[in-house]
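Known limitations

Structure tokens in this collection are predictions and should be treated as such. Users comparing against experimental data should check residue numbering before alignment. To illustrate the layout, the record for DUF1508 domain-containing protein is reproduced below. The input appears on top and the generated tokens appear beneath it.
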Amino acid sequence: MGMFVISKRHNGDYKFVFTSRKGKPVFTSISCKQKSDCEMIINAIRENIEVFTITRKCTVSGKFFFRLSKGGLVLATSRKFSTELRLAKGIDEIMRNVPEAETLDFSVNEFVFPDADIPGGEAG
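Generated tokens:
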């Protein structure tokens, strides 16, 4: 199963990445001003992936990628694939795994582990 990972860009905008079950990025969304926009796009993709258009592309250097769009608006662009077969497998993985994919939110910079300099924060 893949997963959607929401994060914050350096400019303060939000994005999400759909990763494969092995943790490799498959596609990355456009920038969104609000985290709720990311969540809305993720839910739309998860619930109705069939209504989105997947356009296959090729770079001048011979790498393959796709764009995910709806109503002419490009919402995400895939990573580059070395062959058309790998591109097809990437698209197939999306179609199979998106409906059950979890969403992880890494957009908040809260530290999970206490700082070692803070008293009581050291392991020992």
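For this record: The mean pLDDT is 88. The longest helix spans residues 35-48. Please report discrepancies through the issue tracker.
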